[in-house]
Amino acid sequence: MKTQYYIATSLDGFIATEDDSLEWLFSLGSLDDSSYPEFISEVGSLAMGSATYEWILRNVEQVSAETGSPWPYTQPAWVFSSRKLPVIDGATIQFVTGDVRNIHSEMQEAAGDKNIWIVGGGDLAGQFYDAGLLDNLIVQIGSATLGKGKPLFPRRVLSPILQLVSVRQMGTGMAELRYEVHNRPPVETV
Ligand SMILES: NC(=O)c1ccc[n+]([C@@H]2O[C@H](COP(=O)([O-])OP(=O)(O)OC[C@H]3O[C@@H](n4cnc5c(N)ncnc54)[C@H](OP(=O)(O)O)[C@@H]3O)[C@@H](O)[C@H]2O)c1
């Protein structure tokens, strides 16, 4: 069981524009031609921050048209927010706030022998990294730049560096890099 941050980014390290648009991403390649179908089949639970959740809320019609449901996931999900947000029809969601370590234990239990997916954003993935709970970074790098936007992973990772384990080209629009994370500060339950 791994905790994985699986995400698409622009070449210059942004996962969304400053106003949370993902339009730039959709022309770069199709999910069906990517590693996503295989990846999601191994996901047992997932976590996201409120900006990511609110993107789905704003785009329920598009999500429904593409996935057949306003909530595209069958796995139990945890949404991190300090605010009260509406629940999307058909979603199994817990809204949570604060330290990621206790939530991770619950997610682990729900995931069984499958993986935990940190959907985004970058700082939430960073909180799992800070706690020594992130095992993999799986990044699809799009052949496009944004100049500014929401950061991929706003952390300084220097020692130990990430361990690059695979590189895969997906057409001309994307390359996927997989990394193992080897930081392991002791995880204390709070
Ligand atoms: N390119 C891709 O593949 C991809 C994938 C996923 C997401 N995205 C996009 O990337 C953008 C990510 O936005 P973002 O960087 O702002 O990140 P985000 O993690 O989606 O949202 C950040 C917000 O989550 C809440 N939050 C985070 N950690 C928390 C904690 N420990 N406790 C309580 N609340 C917490 C806070 O808001 P509040 O407390 O105010 O609610 C925080 O401002 C979105 O536009 C999303 O659609 C792109």
UniProtKB/TrEMBL annotation:
Pfam families: RibD_C (PF01872). SUPFAM superfamilies: Dihydrofolate reductase-like (SSF53597). PANTHER family: 2,5-DIAMINO-6-RIBOSYLAMINO-4(3H)-PYRIMIDINONE 5'-PHOSPHATE REDUCTASE (PTHR38011:SF11), DIHYDROFOLATE REDUCTASE FAMILY PROTEIN (AFU_ORTHOLOGUE AFUA_8G06820) (PTHR38011). InterPro entries: DHFR-like_dom_sf, RibDG_C, Riboflavin_Biosynth_HTPR. This is Dihydrofolate reductase family protein. Signal peptide: none annotated. Residues 6-174 form the Bacterial bifunctional deaminase-reductase C-terminal domain.
